[in-house]
Structures are given as structure tokens and as C-alpha cells.
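User: I've been trying to design a sequence by hand for this structure and keep getting stuck. Would you show me what you'd pick, starting by listing the structure so we're on the same page?

Assistant: Good idea, let's start from the same input. This is the structure you sent:
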């Protein structure tokens, strides 16, 4: 399948842009309407654009009629509550699919490694059109938190950890890179996440913000990291064993897995 992709993503699958001066804006996310939507940890989401303008966060392909992650419909109630966030999402002028603010509760490095996943942004996307990538604009000042990216889920050597202070802006091909956020704070993290269609509009917006396609990783203690990898591996193995037991006997665990072993939703 061939799609329109931006060359700047070829090397690493992500670009870090100039930081946005988040402190000049009001904290609109504090008033938004959030809905429960599990993705990579203990999360809720406030949709600004959804498949058909409803207050919900499901993938656009799960609606009738199903559609790809483009042509999102603005959710009137949340747009009215967050006009500046809406303006920021619209700034590139590219086609927008899902657009929402994520609320992520504090977690551990082990949790984040366990939660690494790829998105399914391009399901139903017609060949020959623009590949969907996602922009992450961090709203809260989470200097000790990082966006973890891996080209290979099981290879820590492919990992990049991008710090998330207020105003951090990263555009990621989240269907190529495994990703999850490690947020060790004691308050929730908030971030504006928008799906954009690759094309000249997005290219111009990125190019005007001094994109960097390879940044140094935030450091992590090697011993601490190895313990986290081992714990995440053990948790994955336990989950696979539970799933196998469940498929052999549907009554196992009353047909459900413990919450910590839930299958990750697409984010
Ligand atoms: Fe995701």
C-alpha cells in the first residue's frame, strides 16, 4: 500500500518541534467533559473531535458508517469549553481525525513498558491519500515524564525517551512506533492529541517549527531499567497465560482478566 508520507519521518518516525508557550494560555482542559476510555494506563479522554460529533472516543472505524481517522466532527460542548485548544488543533490546516485531551494518572516505568503499543490510525485509509500521524502537545508541566518510543517493542536499544514539560510538541507516526508515556508525577498529566493527514499543510506547519527528527533520550538508570523490563516481561507472560487459560476454558476468571491485564485499547 502506498500513501503520501512526509520525508521527515523516514529516519526515526517522530519529530520534536519548537516548544509552545503553554503558560500564556488558560487551563481549558480543567473544564472539559471527560469520558472513560482506557488506553495505555489509567486514562480518560475529552473528545474535541470524534467520528460524528458525539461525546465519545471510539475509533472511527467502529461507527456506522465506518470511516478512517479523518474528517473528525467537532464536539460542540467541548469545543465551546476549549476554544484555544481547538484553534491550536486547527492551526496546521491539515485534515483532522480524532482530536482529544488525554488525562493520564501517574504510573511507573514498568507500567509504561508493559503498555507499549502501536495505533491503528490508517485502518480504512484509502491508498494514495495521506498517512495519518498524531501530534502530542503537552499541556501540564511534566518535566520528569517522558514519551517512550520504540521501533521494536522488545528491543530497549531502539528506545527514545522524550521529556514532556508544558508546551512540548511531538509529532509521531504512532502506527510505526510503539509508544506509551511514563508519568511518575503525583497529579494527572494532560495532553492534546490530534490525528492529522500527511500532506503539504502538515509539512508546512512542521517545517516552520524547527523539527528535530533525532533527540537524545532522557537518561534512566540501567539497573532500574532492567528491573522494569523484567517486570513488564513477566506481566506480559502472565497475561498471555491467562488468555490461553481463558481460551481453553471460557469460564476461567469468570470470562474476564484482572484490570491490570486488560487488552489495551487503541489510543
Ligand atoms: Fe497510542
Amino acid at each position: 500500500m502506498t500513501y503520501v508520507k512526509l520525508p521527515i519521518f523516514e529516519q526515526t518516525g517522530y519529530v520534536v518541534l519548537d516548544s509552545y508557550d503553554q503558560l500564556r494560555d488558560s487551563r481549558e482542559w480543567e473544564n472539559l467533559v471527560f469520558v472513560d476510555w482506557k488506553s495505555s494506563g489509567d486514562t480518560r479522554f475529552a473528545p474535541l473531535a470524534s467520528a460524528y460529533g458525539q461525546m465519545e472516543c471510539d475509533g472511527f472505524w467502529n461507527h456506522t458508517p465506518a470511516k478512517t481517522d479523518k474528517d473528525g466532527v467537532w464536539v460542540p460542548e467541548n469545543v465551546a469549553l476549549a476554544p484555544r485548544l481547538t484553534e491550536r488543533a486547527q492551526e496546521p490546516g491539515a485534515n483532522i481525525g480524532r482530536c482529544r485531551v488525554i488525562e493520564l494518572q501517574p504510573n511507573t516505568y514498568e507500567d509504561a513498558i508493559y503498555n507499549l503499543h502501536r495505533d491503528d490510525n490508517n485502518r480504512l485509509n484509502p491508498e494514495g491519500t495521506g498517512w495519518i500521524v498524531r501530534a502530542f502537545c503537552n499541556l501540564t508541566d511534566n518535566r520528569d515524564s517522558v514519551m517512550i518510543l520504540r521501533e521494536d517493542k522488545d528491543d530497549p536499544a531502539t528506545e527514545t525517551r522524550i521529556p514532556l514539560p508544558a508546551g512540548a510538541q511531538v509529532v509521531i507516526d504512532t502506527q510505526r512506533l510503539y509508544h506509551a508515556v511514563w508519568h511518575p508525577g503525583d497529579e494527572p498529566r494532560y495532553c492534546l492529541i490530534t490525528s492529522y493527514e500527511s500532506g503539504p499543510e502538515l509539512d508546512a506547519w512542521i517545517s516552520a517549527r524547527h523539527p528535530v527528527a533525532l533527540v537524545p533520550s532522557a537518561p534512566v538508570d540501567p539497573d532500574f531499567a532492567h528491573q522494569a523490563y523484567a517486570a513488564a516481561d513477566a506481566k506480559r507472560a502472565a497475561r498471555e497465560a491467562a488468555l490461553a487459560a481463558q481460551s481453553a476454558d471460557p469460564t476461567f476468571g469468570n470470562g474476564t482478566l484482572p484490570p491490570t491485564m486488560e487488552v489495551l485499547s487503541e489510543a
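That's my pick for every position. To get oriented when you compare it with your attempt: Residues 7-207 form a domain with the Jelly Rolls fold (CATH 2.60.120.330). The first helix runs from residue 76 to 81.
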